[in-house]
# Entry
Amino acid sequence: MGKQINRSLFSTRVIEWYELNKRELPWRDVTTPYVIWISEIILQQTRVAQGYDYFVRFIERFPDLTTLAAAEEDEVLKYWQGLGYYSRARNLHAAAKKLKGVFPRTYSEVLAMKGVGEYTAAAICSFAYNMPYAVVDGNVYRVLARYLGVDVPIDSTQGKKIFAALADELMDKSRPATYNQAIMEFGALQCVPNSPDCGSCPMIDGCVAYASAAVAKLPVKQNKLKTKDRFFNYIYVRAGAYTFIHRRAANDIWKGLYELPLVETEVMLSADAFVASDAFYTLVNASEKPIVRLLSSGHKHVLSHQIIYANFYEVILPENARSFSAYKKIRRDEIDDYAVPRLIHNFLLSLE
# Structure
């Protein structure tokens, strides 16, 4: 499966590389557990380049547990808008309310926080408290799989156990915070997923994948994520100075966010077919003689397990219209006050 490990040499080289190449980031070289927690949750499923500005804005508005706990969920979601995976924001808010201003100081207590798994708990405890818990994220999986030549699938039960044990074995327990930062940064910048610059790698002389020309084959995954296609028809209403929105409450994507009135169909209908459909007229009162036009079509929004195909329609109605009575009526110039999915946000930007 792998090879004998010179633990001291491995950790020393990774840390030396890190000290020369690490990025200056606002959550790095700090020991405040709250700040580290926020950064780690933001960086789940989010690249550093995208998450950087979100982190800065979020910390400026919610600088501590008490401030975050006191906020309304709608505001927390608004500051998260565009990052996706909104359950992360809801879990942050719920955890902050439960902690009552005091951040836990043990691994088991941190792990018990809502939305915190083993990786995040290890990151918080090692970075904030310098506890010897090894982090295992996608970057670490890749570095270890390649360097040690481990071809066990990283998404298998066996693989998770093996890599957790290897990560713990290799960690420099005298400086766990630095080592954990170093190996993750090494995977993010040096041992990248595609076409890494192996010639400049300080680990090249001991790398099994490089020696066996298997860099592109490692790490191995056994399960390819299946995706589902969904077809959304959004309706942007102009009723004088007003429009309509509603909050997604079902256990589905974008829970807690606001969106325009929506008709989901089994397939993407043509504009004529949609406007003639019964579903359209369950929302729109035909007697109010709506003016309807297709504003924008062919949008493709890729999520981790779903692909959304969306069309956007405009419906013009009298200001006192009875259509869309089940929806929230707001002034059109107030829509920016509500947290919406990126798909809706981008559409609204196109109207300006």
Q: What stands out?
A: The chain has two domains: 7-217, 228-351.
